[in-house]
Specification:
- This protein has helices spanning 14-39, 46-49, 64-82, 136-144, 151-169, 172-180, 191-194, 213-223, 243-253; strands at residues 100-109, 118-130, 183-188, 199-204, 208-209, 227-229, 231-232.
- With 255 residues, the chain is an alpha+beta fold.
- It has one domain (11-253).
- Helix 3 (64-82) crosses helix 5 (151-169).
- The chain is globular, with a radius of gyration of 20 Å.
């Protein structure tokens, strides 16, 4: 589970920090979207599912049967245990459009002294998946509001998350490439929201933090909202690592 550090700040600093965070977050997001668009050809879902997904190609893909078996097993468990939905996958699966999407990493938490959970998001982390009309924030919101989950929304969301998870589990070169661009790839779960459903999360090396809970609660109450975006640690930017330089120095030190 990703843990964001907590840093105490003054209320009067919030406005400037938010503005700075939004500028940096927008720049990082724009860059990452350009990177992932370039990587699209390497992330075709058919590379994982082969003939088990509807496609114009009829060629078989090595490992597709095993991949589909793993996806089906995890799919059934998540739909049953996390969402209370009984589901069976038929083959071939409906075609998954080869379009990668990035949505902010979100989680919910009930602050001390509060009875209602807040939805936290961050300007430096994103969930990578294939394009879907339903996303993680939608799911968290439905869970908090005790909305009845709809199979036609949840099922494609789960299938896409599992497909991109399998792709990255079998493609260490993608992780290495993104790391070279300054984005760490990790596999995360949100047990209380979606059980064992794995999410592929990209985290920038740019540091972020959460203000102390009392300030978060105060700001949320004043805004009348139910969400809070973490802040970029502007002071920590100067201490960010230069990845290539650090790797070279590590090699020299180990020589």
């Amino acid at each position: 589970m990703l843990v964001t550090p907590i840093k105490e700040i003054q209320f009067e600093d919030m406005s400037a920090l938010r503005e700075q965070s939004q500028k940096i977050g927008s720049m990082l997001s724009e860059d990452l979207r350009a990177y992932t668009k370039t990587l699209t050809a390497l992330c075709a879902p058919r590379k994982v599912l082969g003939e088990f997904m509807q496609s114009a190609s009829r060629d078989k893909v090595v490992g597709a049967e095993k991949n589909f078996s793993l996806l089906e097993e995890r799919y059934k468990a998540v739909m049953r245990d996390a969402f209370g939905l009984s589901a069976k996958l038929s083959t071939p699966l409906s075609a998954i459009h080869n379009k990668l999407s990035l949505t902010p990493w979100c989680y919910s938490e009930v602050l001390a002294g509060s009875s209602s959970p807040l939805i936290f998001s961050t300007p430096v982390r994103w969930v990578l998946s294939y394009d879907c009309s339903y996303d993680l924030r939608d799911l968290i919101t439905d869970r908090i509001e005790s909305e009845e989950l709809r199979y036609e929304e949840v099922s494609p969301f789960v299938v896409r998350a599992l497909t991109v998870w399998l792709l990255f589990e079998q493609s260490p070169e993608l992780k290495r490439m993104l790391a070279g661009l300054g984005y760490e790839v990790s596999i995360e779960i949100l047990p209380e929201i979606s059980g064992d459903l794995p999410y592929v999360v990209l985290t920038s090396i740019v540091p972020a933090f959460r203000p102390q809970d009392t300030l978060v609660g105060m700001v949320s109450q004043l805004s009348g909202g139910s969400s809070f975006e973490e802040l970029v640690d502007v002071e920590g930017i100067e201490g960010m690592p230069f990845l290539l330089k650090d790797r070279l120095l590590e090699q020299l030190g180990g020589a």
